[in-house]
Specification:
Shape: globular
Number of strands: 19
Number of domains: 1
CATH superfamily: Ribonuclease Z/Hydroxyacylglutathione hydrolase-like
Order of helices and strands: EEEEEHEHEEEEEEEEHEEHEHEE
Number of helices: 5
Strand content: 25-35%
Structural class: alpha/beta
Largest sheet: 7 strands, mixed
Oligomer: single chain
CATH topology: Metallo-beta-lactamase, Chain A
Strand order of the largest sheet: 7-6-5-3-2-1-19
Radius of gyration: 17 Å
CATH class: Alpha Beta
Distance between the termini: 27 Å
Length: 259
C-alpha cells in the first residue's frame, strides 16, 4: 500500500494495483459558498492532478471534501463513490459513473477493492455523512478513513483494521468545543480497531487559512502528544506524520488469525 498526502483532507491511496483519489482539493482556493471573508484556504504549493485515477472517493458533499473546482478539472468519466450528498455534487457536474453509498452499503472496484460506507460526521441536525473501510481483497489489508473524528461504535465489528486515517488533534471553537475530534477520540478508535498504522488528516499540509472563522479556531494537542497517549495505553500502533506531496509505502504485516 502506498499513500500520498495531498493537503487538508486529500489523499491518493494506491491499494490492490488501484489508484483512489480521496476527498481531493487540488486546484484553486477552498471556500464555503464563496464566502472568502468567513473562511478561505489557499495552497502554498500546487499539487499536480495524479494520472490514471481509477476511482474518486468522496466522504461528504461539503466543499472541503467535494471540492467543485477540483472536480471540474478531473475526468468526468472516472468512477465516483460517495455519500448521497456528495453524489449529488458530482451528478450536477456531469460525472457519468456515480455510485452513491448509504451506511453499511458496499461497492467493489474491479474485483480488487471493497469499499464499505460507515457512519461518519454529522452535518446539521439530521445528516450523517460517510466514513469508509477499504479492503484489499487479495491480501485482506484494510484501511479506515473518517475526516472529522466521529467514529461509530459499529466499527468494533470490523476490527482489527490495519491503517486508520483520521484527525489526531482537536480543532475547537469557543463555546462549541472540538468540531474536528482527535486526541481522545483517536485513542478510542485505536483501542477499538488495534491498527498497525495511524495517520493524521484534516489539519495539515502546505496550506494557509484566513477569514473570520480562522481567528477563533484553536488547535488542541499535537501528533507527539497522541503518540504519548498510545504509549500510556499500551498500544503499539505506529503513527506516521507524512510530508505533503511525498509518496510513501505503508509496510504492513499479515495478522495471525486465531483459531
Amino acid at each position: 500500500m502506498h499513500l500520498t498526502y495531498l493537503d487538508s483532507n486529500s489523499w491518493l491511496i494506491e491499494i490492490g494495483s488501484k489508484k483512489i483519489l480521496l476527498d481531493p482539493w487540488l486546484v484553486g482556493n477552498l471556500t464555503f459558498n464563496g464566502a472568502d471573508w468567513f473562511f478561505k484556504g489557499s495552497k502554498l504549493k500546487e499539487r499536480p492532478i495524479p494520472e490514471n485515477i481509477d476511482l474518486i472517493l468522496l466522504s461528504q458533499g461539503l466543499e472541503d471534501h467535494a471540492h467543485t473546482p477540483t472536480l471540474k478539472e478531473l475526468d468526468h468519466n472516472i468512477q465516483v463513490v460517495g455519500s448521497p450528498n456528495a453524489a449529488k455534487v458530482v451528478k450536477e457536474l456531469g460525472y457519468t459513473q456515480i455510485n452513491s453509498l448509504d451506511h453499511n452499503e458496499t461497492f467493489t472496484l474491479d474485483g480488487s477493492i471493497e469499499i464499505k460506507a460507515v457512519p461518519g460526521s454529522p452535518i446539521g441536525p439530521t445528516l450523517v455523512e460517510n466514513g469508509y473501510i477499504l479492503t484489499e481483497l487479495e491480501t485482506g489489508f484494510t484501511l479506515y478513513y473518517e475526516p472529522h473524528g466521529y467514529h461509530s461504535p459499529s466499527l468494533k465489528e470490523s476490527a482489527p483494521i490495519d491503517v486508520v486515517i483520521t484527525p489526531l488533534i482537536n480543532l475547537a471553537l469557543p463555546l462549541v468545543g472540538p468540531f474536528i475530534k482527535g486526541q481522545q477520540k483517536a485513542l478510542e478508535v485505536a483501542q477499538w480497531l488495534q491498527p498497525q498504522v495511524m495517520l493524521p488528516t484534516a489539519a495539515g499540509g502546505d496550506v494557509e487559512f484566513e477569514g473570520l472563522l480562522v481567528k477563533f479556531l484553536k488547535a488542541e494537542g499535537t501528533v507527539t502528544d497522541f503518540r504519548s497517549l498510545l504509549e500510556k495505553n499500551n498500544l503499539t500502533t505506529q503513527v506516521i506524520d507524512p510530508s505533503a506531496g511525498e509518496r510513501f509505502e505503508v509496510e504492513l504485516k499479515q495478522r495471525v488469525l486465531s483459531a
